[in-house]
Design brief:
about 130 residues; 7-stranded mixed beta sheet; 3 helices
Length: about 130
């Protein structure tokens, strides 16, 4: 069965909840947006496997000054959704770090009707700083 308008609205709300928590630096909420067995593929790093590892990884972040997330494509059905979009991020520091790029991920509908990330991959458009 294809995603319904209700599903799409719930997925968009989950993505905004995730983005708002990132802006606040509320890493417990961000980690709770992933399934226990989720996997994240961040740029220039090895994969992060599982909610506990995700929370520990997020805890290493410096303060976030700005964060925006779009969902440019959402397709799926039968309790799964593929999401593709963009992000923009400014990390506070003596010299702020600005990043932007693309992401794609899979969300799975939970028993209670909520949607959580099972997999996501982040692709920065910033060039890798090489010596």
């Amino acid at each position: 069965m294809a995603l319904t308008e209700h599903d799409l609205a719930a997925i968009r709300a989950a993505i905004e909840k995730d983005a708002a928590a990132v802006r606040r630096g509320d890493w417990d909420v961000v980690a709770s947006m992933f399934t226990d067995d989720a996997i994240r593929f961040p740029p220039h790093q090895p994969p992060i496997r599982g909610r506990a590892a995700m929370r520990a990884w997020l805890g290493t972040f410096p303060p976030i000054e700005q964060f925006a997330l779009t969902a440019d494509e959402i397709i799926g059905g039968d309790g799964f959704a593929f999401v593709r979009g963009t992000y923009a991020l400014t990390i506070g520091a003596a010299t702020p770090v600005v990043d932007h790029g693309n992401y794609m991920g899979v969300m799975r509908q939970q028993q209670d009707g909520s949607w959580l990330w099972t997999t996501d991959m982040i692709a920065s458009e910033q060039p890798l700083p090489l010596p």
